[in-house]
Amino acid sequence: MTQTKTEDLDQLIRAEYKNTAGLVVEKNGRVLYEKYFNGYTAENAAHVFSVTKSVFSALIGIAVGQGRIQSVRQKVLDFFPDYRLPAGETTAQTITIEHLLTMTAPYKYDTEPYELFFSSPHPIPDALGLLGGDKPAGIFNYSAVGGTHILSGILAAATGRSALDYAKEHLFSPLDVVVPRSIALRSAEEHFAVMNDKSTSGWVADPQGFSTASWGLFLRSQDMAKFGRLYQNHGVWNGRQIVPAGWVEKSTAVHSRFGGLSYGYLWWIIDPNEPSYAALGDGGNVIYVNERTRLVVAIASLFVPDAKDRIALIRERIEPMFESAAE
Prior knowledge:
Layout: H1 3-16, E1 20-27, E2 30-36, E3 45-47, H2 51-65, H3 97-101, H4 114-119, H5 123-129, H6 146-159, H7 163-175, E4 182-184, H8 188-195, E5 203-205, E6 218-220, H9 221-232, E7 236-237, E8 240-241, H10 245-251, E9 256-258, E10 261-263, E11 268-271, E12 276-281, E13 285-290, E14 295-301, H11 310-322
Parallel strand pairs: 4-5
Antiparallel strand pairs: 1-2, 1-14, 3-6, 7-8, 9-10, 10-11, 11-12, 12-13, 13-14
Helix pairs in contact: 2-6, 2-7, 5-6
């Protein structure tokens, strides 16, 4: 890769993707490009928003592999024996873990009530109360926040630990990924203050201590690339099976569709034939994996509304630039 081409990419990022914090491109585990922007360095973590979902999918897969969760076809309510369904609610009794993973669970709303989840002292019971209703299960229905967060309660019930503690032992530590602490957000002001704060590092926890399953994880760009490489290597890291290979395969296969988009187990499927897939988060946060080209692209970004499409950047500019790079 010539210096001129990498300089061209630097200029493109600064001109058209101005909220980028870090960009790492790897091929077969070798770093081909690594650059930081907006005052960020390799040591700064960024809030990766819904990329958190794909990391949480890995934790569910590890728990399944350990037998702590018997099957993704287990009913959601089996993990909350003290929860009492609203009178007349029957659909929620049929919802499985797999429905949550594939975004095919139904909810009693047309527009997700974000403020409810961000302000609730008990967000998981509130999310359970909105599960079900008159809509059938099995139809794609993206839950940005509350529905996915139910998985955090399921993981805690299955393992007896918070997602952060469980991840530190079984995912983060083996990869040397630094997520040091739980982050408590006590107000809307605190919530917005940490989103683009380069000094923040950790994982947001709800008022009950459950690590948020749908957002709230802060990762360094290098750590995002590690997670992509782990999946590219079918869950193996330094010769050790961290995530079951079968789970990686199932997670990155098509389970549901929305228009022209395909979805796996909390992963977006870009092209099932290559295969290529991505963890995507607001603001342009991406972990992209292409098993054909053996490329992993990690982009950490600061939040801006309506961020420019990073998948188009990767597919149209970055991938052609690095695909033929010597291994």
